[in-house]
Amino acid sequence: MNRLMIADLQRMWRQGIAISLLLGCGIALFVMTNSSMLSLAKTRQQYYQDYRFGELFTALVRAPNSLADKVAAVPGVQEVQTRIVRDVLLDIPEMVEPASCRLVSIDTAAVNPMNGIHLLLGRFPSDDQRSEVIVSELFAHGHGFQPGDSLTCIMGGRKQKLQIVGIGMSPEYVYVVQPGMLITDDRRFGVVWMPRRQMAAAFNMEGAFNNLSIDLLPKANVDEVIFQVDRLTKRYGGTGAYDREDQISHRRVADEMSQMKTFAFVTPSIFLAVSAFLFNIVFTRLITQQTEQIATLRAFGYRPREIGWHYVQMVILLVVVATIFGWVVGLRLSWWMTSEYIKFFRFPTVDHQFAVTHAVGAVAIGAGAALIGTYAAIRKAIRLQPAEAMRPAAPKDYRGLIAERTGLSKLMTPVGRMVVRRLETNRLATTLSVLGMSLAVAVLVLGSYMRNTIDFVIEFQFEKSQRQDVMLTFVDTLSAASLHDVAHLPGVFAVEPYRTVPVRLRNKTRTRRVGLMGLDTNPDLYRILNDQQQPVSFPVHDGLTVSQKMAELLDAKLGDEIWIDILDRRQPSYRFQIAEVFGNFTDPSAYVNRQQLHALLGEGEQFSGAFLSVDSDAIQDLYAEVKQMPTVAGVVDKNAAEASFRDTVASSTSLMRIVNAVFSGLIALGVIYNCAIIILAERARDLATLRVMGFRRREVSYVLLSELAVITLVSIPIGIPIGYGLSYVATLALDTETHRFPLVIERSTYSYAAIVIVAAASLSALYVRRMLNSLDLVAVLKVKE
Amino acid sequence: MSSFRLNLPDHVQVMKAADKSAGQSSDNSPTSRTAVFTAHGLTKVYRMGEVDVHALRGVDVEMYAGEFVVILGASGSGKSTLLNILGGLDVPTSGRVSFRDQSLTDADEDDLTEYRREHIGFVFQFYNLIASLTAKENVALVADIAKDPLEPEEALRKVGLYDRRDHYPSQLSGGEQQRVAIARAIGKRPDVLLCDEPTGALDVKTGVIVLEAIARINQDLGTLTAVITHNAAIAEMADRVISLSDGRVAEIHVNQNRKEAKELVW
Lengths: 785, 266
Prior knowledge:
The complex is a heterodimer. By secondary structure, chain A is α+β, with helices and mostly antiparallel strands. In chain A, α12 runs parallel beside α19 and α18 (638-692) runs parallel beside α20 (747-773). Chain A starts with a helix and ends with a helix. Chain B contains seven helices and ten strands. In chain B, strands 6-7-8-3-9-10 form a six-stranded mixed beta sheet, sandwiched between helices. The interface between A and B is medium-sized, with 32 and 36 residues.
């Protein structure tokens, strides 16, 4: 039997590799995504632990140091860290637009402090040296800063030179994002750590702090601690304590990881299911071809069990090859993927993991699919009496076919009739081939539609929704009079101020922290679009406008009344009706008419920032002046933001997209190659007969290739809707707590899928044609059918 | 090449008469007849793994226009190899073989395809009909690539299957399928009809009907017909019998009295 195995393998090794590759790709993708995810989860956990990432955080305006002891006395609190945190503008000569940074105070004397810094280069600042700082690694990298370089920041309207002595990173800033920005931009925003004493001096905060970080005891009652901390900090302008879930960096990483989890699960699962299914189809057909060999073995006296075992061994061998391919490639790709990922999410080291359970599971699924197919096919083969199986199969009955009844075949040449009748008679084989290829088309669509979605979101966000050129955020709120100065900055066409205030929205047991944004009734620059791409307006009414996602998070619907707690001042809670819910693809958000927000806050016109429309020729002058404005905390240049978004998203998703595209291409090739080989095997006799009768190679290939062509062309229109369906499922799965993606598939994606399939079919056809040319005519004819 | 086509019935009759007289005379002089195939010192060696298999070990043979030749031999005697070389499905390892004045020895794959296309009709043991085509379509398939084909109906009439022209192979008996295969082979008016064990898969009664059809073609169209068989009985209907043994020509026997197919018994 081993001899037979070797002979079978020698005969079919190419096909075997193609089949293994199918399953291997499914396994590799599954292993890749799951291992990457596991690696990141493990890495993050280790990092948080080693550098003691805080568990609760709160920002306040100014509190005396003595408050720390009171907070430390709250039951459940293990340790309290007080800090001074300020966002300031930087003056970087080679940059037109102002960059900004977050200054964070550090206690130079503390050993293994909470929210510790992992130093990559240089040393920690010394407390008595003025203005020594550590710069966050990506920002330093973005500007080429090295220890010894200096940096100018604008503190309280005065330029101050900071001496860089170290480059570092912290679990608190795994993902560094500027307020108002969607994603990281390592040129425009960074974190700078500075000794507490220097910061206190610069910001007039001696004996005081404005930021609290808390480490909890195990089994602490988090809600209770938050309640107590809020009670203590409220009078110092505390904006409410929040846990890691609401900490920006952690949240982004967690979001990204949960999205990846869906990615890791849904797309690869579909891939795996498809490849297992194809593995099953191909293997079933392969065994069907072996009916005669099986009969011969039975005639020799082999027991059905032994014959079954032979094929099971073959399955095992193919699965082993697929496993080795899938695991090795998957693991290797997961390193690659993780290293791409940590370009944006910074960890000191990566703890590479291999998702053993998933890897084994993937193999089990593949092997299971193959064994089911094998079992069914072998049972059928064995049920035939050996003598019956070895007799020439009775020619198939071709009467009453559709092609005949409709008279279609009358219009064709005999060769055309051969093709059509065979396709119609071998319905099961034809259906399986078409199904296999359709799935290949579908997988190609699934593998590349994300690009369309991302383009759509970018256009939606940056072109249609946001029409400002520059967004300013102010250090403190500005009055209408001060806004006048902004309107007179060089090149400014229009100014649209906004007010934003940190709030907690509550409905039943659900709560959500969000910046409640007050906008003009019909904003012209910063527009919110619903999913019909119509601008949402904010008329003065007693109600909130929330995004669909926010409504879902709060389990609230149109007309429901929910609670709003203003976080940065001592005010009672308000009850608000949800006056409008709009659907789109942005994060959960809440808006209200700006005048109404002013009234709610009991203030006149006070602005948190402004959107500007600016003459592009004057933008340099504008930035030059903005750099001198002590009231401005941050500047977001929309074009730069869009470019940065494109860059980041493009590169962070490109790997996944490339992998998907390559694997779907390989799956397509595997399916089509096998289809072609099987068609050749099934038709070898007819084709050899034609050759013997004097048909030229070209004429004979025409028979074979037109069959393949018909299958390919039929598969494309069937595969495209399947692809749409699979993409729809993937989009549903990507609808996480904070993100929703639209399902956008451009025609170019369908064309791409069709082109890849046609190319794969052509490649396979060329190969099969070569095999056809070397067909041993005599040998084929000597064998009975 | 086409100038050699046997498409004039009168001409055929003349040649037939000449052949018959030559066949009947006891001193059979090849020079008096038109040689279609001339083979000298044909050898064929197949490499099977580590061993060389000598299928032909120096065969000299000639075949003439209009002749009915039976190549007789046991399994492994080299008869199929010889037929394949004559039919342009294989080339000899050494020696020379030509069809009329065209050498087949140096022909490449494409030349051989053209050669088969224009001159050769094949009939195989297992019929090799295209199952998805009716009897008529199977014949038409060949007519499509021939320069001067018989009408498919005409070819089927010659094998007595005109009435079953619209039947698929699955609706025909083995003997009928083989006769369709013969009709298909002669559909292009080949110069040579090569039959490899045409009755091998058939019972005696059906086999006789098939042989009758072959003999009739030979008679009516004057097509040089070579039938391979291991069945000595069939040899009795040939003009000449070439016996092969162990890759060599053991004997060439001229039948003084050809039997009709229906007189054969085996």
